[in-house]
Amino acid sequence: MTTFLTNVFAGLALGSTYALVALGFVVIYKSTGVINFAQGGLLALGAYLGYTFSNNLVIAFGFAILLACVAAAIVGASVERMVLRRMVGQPPFAVIMITIGLLFVLEPLITAIWGFDNLPVRNPWNIQTVQIGQLVLGVRDLWTIGITAAVVIGFFLFFRYSRMGLAMRATAFDPEAALAQGISARRVYATSWAIAAALAALAGITLAAGPGGLQPSISSIALAAFPAMILGGLDSPAGAVLGGVIIGLAEALTRGYQDQLFSWAGDNVSVIVPYVLMILILLIRPYGLLGTKDVRRI
Amino acid sequence: MRPHRNLVRSYAQDLRLFGSPMAKVGLVVMLATLLVLPTVVQDDFWLSVLIYSGITAIGAVGLNLLTGYTGQISLGHAFFIGAGAYAAAVFGGDLGLPLPLWLLAAAAVGALLGGLIGPFALRLRGHYLAIVTLGLIFIGEHIWRNLRDVTGGNNGTSVGAQATLGPVDLGALKLAGETYSRNQGYFWLVWGLVAIVALLAKNLVRTRPGRALRAVRDHDQAAEVIGVRAGRYKIGAFMVSSAIAAVAGALFGSYQQHVSPDDWTLLLSIQYIAIIIVGGLGTVFGSILGAIFVGALPALIDEYSSAIPGVATEAGGDGFISVFALNQAIFGLLIVLFLVFEPRGLAGIWFRVKAYFKAWPFSY
Asked: Chain A: nearest CA to B128, how far in angstroms?
């Protein structure tokens, strides 16, 4: 039982990271109709900026996170302004490829600046643990889950009650009608990129503060967040969070029971569990758990 | 009075393989170049660059049929290429079949896998399909790493498939008293296959199935309404595309003689996508053009990395960017720049130049 709970806890922590990244995907997809493959690059950029703020500039970790998120948001908004805005109205293939291209430019840029070494991020959590009964919980994992929960609630409040959130929902619903109401589509697009980049940066730093440390391959976590987004449905923020948690749990449980249950499927099955789960769900529900089926006209 | 040679008067005429006498001349010149080139350029480095470009061109034609003509985004091309290489290792190496048979066997394996993946394309579209095929890369990588009997696990496997055609061994060609090197033999083999695959693809796209594929690309439901079986053509496109990819993979394995799971990563898929974007989506000719430019790039960068400032030639060496990272960045930049500034790719530039001179001096 203890093993099971430990695995579930690890799954929740991992799922929180996925949820943050997937939420970023959904924010961009809903308002601009673009799937952003460059999210992984923004995540890594945020994590490395956090490292610079925390280690090199010796800023308190909480502020370092905040600064990194703001910096990543600025980068995200400027990428939207400089590259993506030129692609408005282009077919999805072209736009997807643009974001993949951006990812492939961002990654080498990051390694060119920070190198390939595994960097330890100075942070207050380290490898401290809290013991509850027989359960040993990592402080970082607790914080990750807590911060994610707070951010997700904050996001939904923003989306539901703020003026900008309303504008974003209107633009997602019908861009032309929103324009006619005086909503600036440009500001909505830039804001959604900024929000997504900040969410990715947050996911990146909390991840980098973990036992794995910070290395360039951190950006690949965003690829594993794709199944989370697809699972929940492309256009559903709640689905993204749900999908993230499900994928995180599935991955952590597979890893935990690798030796007992999954040895037949080869080593490290947990790495591909998100994708297998995604494919299975898509066979049953092609638009994800909470996504809306798009109506197509001829 | 004879009409002008460029005047098209019937539909059949419009569909001709060679629209003008100049095209025939161009084809003869190209074929002659292919035959003569390896005897002029005997340097092993340049020949190997051209061989890799040729192999890439074959795979790119396959991807262009799927993505450029049918509009199905696939990030999983590397998976089928890998499957082809392992098929070559099994059928050509372990079973010792001759060249045509292991190429066909690889194509069959590719078509089979494509046929298994194809049905997903019926349910999913655009973004969903892109991400599911992305999953294919990771699931494939897991399979390659764990199916040790066939793939040799992480260390990879040697590919013993020989380029033998009856008594003729293209690996050590002897013709009229002359002996030719392995690279020369493979050059003719690979580029001969490029010509065959390009011809097959061209014939496919200029006839009824090709028109159906483009109808599906433009709007699959509208295509259904006018009587195109969109589902069948989507699966068909997946099968043909992955069969061609598997042939490219088989050639790659046979030429390189050793393959490992690290060869079939997401980067390879992206490289192919960069090729068809740079070359021109929806043109057979563009895929080959793109393959020559983009396919040759990694080899050239590797060869001249010491001459490029700021590139570290070995791990821990001087310079701020590794060869691998530079490759990646260049693919990324090429994709972004071409999509933003020249979405029709190199083929588009070529057609513009051609159109300009066709009507010269009245081109405006």
From this structure: 7
Domain residue extents for chain A: 14-219
Chain B residues in contact with A79 (beta carbon < 8 A): none
Q: Is the CB of residue B326 less than 8 Å away from at least one CB of chain A?
A: yes
Complex-level ipTM: 0.84
- A178 and A168 in contact (C-beta within 8 Å)? no
Tell me the H-state helices in B75-207.
77-88, 99-123, 127-146, 148-151, 182-206
- Tell me the whole-structure pTM to 2 decimals: 0.88
3-class SS of residue B3: coil
Contact call for A227 and B131, based on CB within 8 A: yes
CB contact under 8 A, A100 and B273: yes
Separation of alpha carbons A30 and B125, rounded Å: 17
* Chain B residue with the nearest C-alpha to that of A274: B135
List, for residues B138-185, the tens digit of each pLDDT value: 999 888 888 888 888 788 888 877 777 767 777 777 777 677 788 888
Over the stretch A111-136, which tens digit does the pLDDT of each residue have? Answer: 888 888 888 877 777 777 777 777 77
User: Which of B131, B262, B334 to mutate against chain A (most A CBs within 10 Å)?
Assistant: B131
Q: Which helix (H) or strand (E) holds B157?
A: strand B157-158
Domains of chain B plus CATH, in order, are: 41-358 (1.10.3470)
Per-residue model confidence as pLDDT tens digits over B101-151: 899 999 999 999 999 888 877 777 777 788 888 888 999 988 888 888 888
Q: Do A230 and B128 touch (CB under 8 A)?
A: yes
**CB-based burial, A27-47: b 16+ in 10 Å, e otherwise:** bbbbbbbbbbbbbbbbbbbbb
Tell me the nearest-neighbour CA distance from B200 into chain A, angstroms: 26
